[in-house]
Design goal:
Strand content: 15-25%
Helix content: 25-40%
Structural class: alpha/beta
Largest sheet: 9 strands, mixed
Radius of gyration: 24 Å
Number of helices: 18
Strand order of the largest sheet: 7-8-6-9-10-11-12-13-14
Low-confidence stretches: none
Shape: globular
């Protein structure tokens, strides 16, 4: 759409916040007549509304259900569920609904230059790490790039800002993909699939279908997880451009058209001249920080996307070496009395916790919080042989305790019947009591944090503070 097409167009933005406010400002700047609707009417919302209204944007607080009169387009923030009355009214009126990603995609190349291609990543877990690894690899190749999208950096800013990019590393959530029907990436990856956000999507089938949208229209490569057939099935079902290839990644030795691991080396049998007989060394497993199995898988997915874009092997190695993981993702805090203390507060669901637990042995596991409807039998069954002991915290800890009683009855369990933030200090002390030299105390809660903490970052900080206090006492 040209600037002229936006002049006077009546657009409703659903929701304030990280993506709603930038969308409203961008649309207003293009000449659209913008109305923002928002369910909340708290102090923060009123302050945000005042800022927008000062620029000439209409804001309706406390009424997110009613479709404003004469609306021609809705641009929604990712968190708004598809069954909202506003969207039902839009469907009845024939009004299209876009997300912020769709808006950014449609606005690419408005300066007349060729827009930067998107290398896109989704999955239940590992998205942010993989996208940041990918950006590090692209930078090592000398390309102008940025990690954007669900990672917390606005795609609209990247698309419309003054900075000109050669390629973008884009993290996309299932929410964003649901509202992005026109997205066509250069190449894309689905890292893994496990039950999550089912209250938003309505079913696992709907959740998986939205994840699979990332492959639609791919030009060069659809990257899938060879260990999860469901991701390969999404590739088979996708309508891609002629010549687009299916590229797998595996922690085993790779088959042709895959990236994998051989004798501690990350190798490429996909983007080589003779993939039937040749493999290209990319990096060593020790170049991956940290070299936990699921993080090696993230590195392989990032490498596959970079190689699809034509990046040389040396840049893959250099980019992985330069990558520094975000806090609270299997982060080593300290060694105390011969025991390693690992913060994986970002493991907010069972799938993430499963990957974290698989990286260590033996383990004293700190777990619990808000279960979000999850069950823990499969997680406990898989980890039982690695557990030295378990310390449970949080509101829904009984669900984990019951799974442990069924599947690991011999493992000692400390159940902390308190949900104040000080419980973390006690949890670390109890874990230290259970641990022996050579063990790992792993805080991988498998639950959300909001019963006790503002977010998973604050939970991780509380764990790290408690570990440091323990270390100071042992000096």
């Amino acid at each position: 759409m040209s600037n002229q097409d936006w002049q006077g167009k009546r657009v409703t933005v659903a929701g304030l916040g990280v993506s709603g406010i930038p969308a409203a400002k961008v649309l207003h700047g293009l000449g659209a007549v913008v109305t923002v609707v928002n369910d909340g009417d708290d102090e923060r919302s009123r302050a945000q509304a005042a800022e927008l209204e000062a620029q000439g944007i209409t804001v309706r607080l406390g009424d997110g259900a009613t479709l404003p009169e004469s609306t021609e387009l809705i641009v929604t923030t990712p968190g708004w569920k598809p069954d909202k009355p506003l969207f039902t009214a839009a469907a009845e009126a024939g009004v299209p609904v876009w997300g912020d990603v769709e808006l950014a995609w449609r606005l690419r190349g408005r300066d007349g230059r060729e827009p930067a291609p998107w290398l896109a990543v989704t999955g239940t877990n590992g998205k942010t790490t993989t996208v940041r690894m990918l950006a590090s690899i692209l930078e090592a190749a000398g390309l102008r790039t940025a990690a954007v999208g669900n990672i917390g950096v606005s795609l609209l800013d990247a698309v419309l800002g003054d900075e000109k990019y050669d390629v973008l590393a884009v993290e996309l959530s299932s929410y964003q993909l649901h509202w992005a029907p026109s997205l066509r990436a250069h190449s894309a990856a689905v890292l893994n699939l496990a039950p999550d956000h089912l209250d938003w999507h309505g079913s696992m089938e709907a959740y998986v279908a939205d994840k699979g949208r990332i492959y639609e229209g791919n030009r060069v490569a659809c990257v899938y997880n060879a260990a999860e057939k469901a991701t390969e099935d999404l590739v088979r079902e996708a309508d891609v451009e002629e010549g687009c290839r299916a590229i797998g990644f595996t922690l085993a030795a790779p088959a042709p058209s895959q990236l994998g691991v051989v004798d501690g080396i990350l190798v490429d049998r996909a983007f080589v001249a003779n993939r039937q007989k040749q493999a290209q060394e990319l990096a060593e497993v020790t170049d991956v920080n940290p070299p936990a199995p699921h993080n090696i898988a993230n590195a392989l997915a990032a490498a596959a996307l970079a190689r699809a874009f034509g990046v040389e092997p040396a840049a893959v190695r250099d980019g992985l070496r330069a990558f520094c993981p975000d806090p609270h993702r299997i982060e080593h805090v300290a060694d105390v009395a011969g025991v390693a203390y690992i913060d994986d507060s970002k493991a907010t669901n069972t799938h993430a916790a499963e990957a974290s637990l698989a990286a260590y042995d033996p383990i004293v596991w700190i777990a619990g919080g808000l279960a979000k409807g999850a069950t823990f039998d499969e997680l406990v069954t898989g980890a039982a042989g690695r557990l030295r002991g378990v310390v449970l915290i949080g509101r829904d800890r009984a669900l984990i305790r019951e799974a442990l009683a069924r599947h690991a009855p011999e493992v000692p369990v400390v159940d902390l019947d308190r949900t104040d933030t000080g419980a973390m200090s006690e949890a670390v002390r109890e874990a230290a009591r259970l641990a022996r030299p050579g063990d790992t105390v792993l805080m991988a809660p498998a639950c959300a944090s909001m019963d006790m903490f503002v977010n998973y970052n604050k939970r991780g900080e509380a764990f790290a503070d408690a570990v440091r206090a323990l270390a100071a006492e042992s000096d």
